[in-house]
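I would like you to help me understand the sequence and structure tokens below and explain how sequence relates to structure.
___
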Amino acid sequence: EVQLVESGGGLVQAGGSLRLSCAASGFTFDDYVITWFRQAPGKEREGVSCFSSYDGTISYADSVKGRFTISSDNAKNTVYLQMNSLKPEDTAVYYCAAQIRRPLLLLTLWAQQGEYEHWGRGTQVTVSS
């Protein structure tokens, strides 16, 4: 059974940092696409950052470019999201999602929820002003 477990969320002041982890199990951690999404209260879920192990491609939402960094540790079956210079508008539940059967059909689809078959339960990130 494929499982994704997020951790690392919490309460932080604006300008602070957090590192989220997405621990994966139930599949061979060789070929996959893992993306971080977030959902703020009253808003739609949005893509934050994507890592494709097929070619090492990394994508970021414009709102987090230069502040967030996605990385992968295959030895630990974990994908990380380092979040720096956090803003109150980054407050949301952060989810990781995985596609393990194929690469993305198009790179531009990385933030489309329908591209992913497996989802974690999320971790809350709250940034105070």
